[in-house]
Hints:
This protein is α+β, with helices and mostly antiparallel strands. The chain has helices at residues 27-40, 132-144, 156-161, 163-171; strands at 5-6, 45-47, 57-61, 76-87, 91-96, 106-111, 113-119, 125-131, 180-181.
Amino acid sequence: MILPVYLYGQPVLRQEAKEVPEDYPELRQLVANMFETMYNADGVGLAAPQVGLSIRLLVIDGDPVKDDYPECKGFKRVMINPEFLERSEEEVALEEGCLSLPGIHEKVSRAKSVRVRYRDENWEEHEEFIDGYAARIVQHECEHLTGHVFIDDISAIRRQLNKGKLNSIIKGTVRCSYRAKAVGK
């Protein structure tokens, strides 16, 4: 089932997400719905707060960007309760967008590589070193679990330049090619 993507201004996007318990009801169905929602919106990652659930769960499929970023080929993950163990000191600035902020793209500096621990949908624990654009996707999605969005990582001047677009998103006047839920809608 395609879920609505919660847009900028929705309170759930600013909440610290809660740990997912092993007995979370219908977890597999939620994961399947999140993948379907992400694919429908042409995204490469989706965090649970973006579908209105303040829990530490995200899905990623980097295949759509594999031509530009070969490290993303086959990079499909379900990450439950992810935590960063390490982040490289070296950072890379690249343009990002977000399904919850349609029409906004800005350069964001992020660690070039990360080591992350998480559980998958079978509740198996993984510890993984992730590099390049795949690491960027993981960091972007994990930020949603802390109540942050990528525009929090840009300069005040760049945020000010996007103020009109942000207000349009909050007012619900922005157009999306996917099912979305704006504030008050």
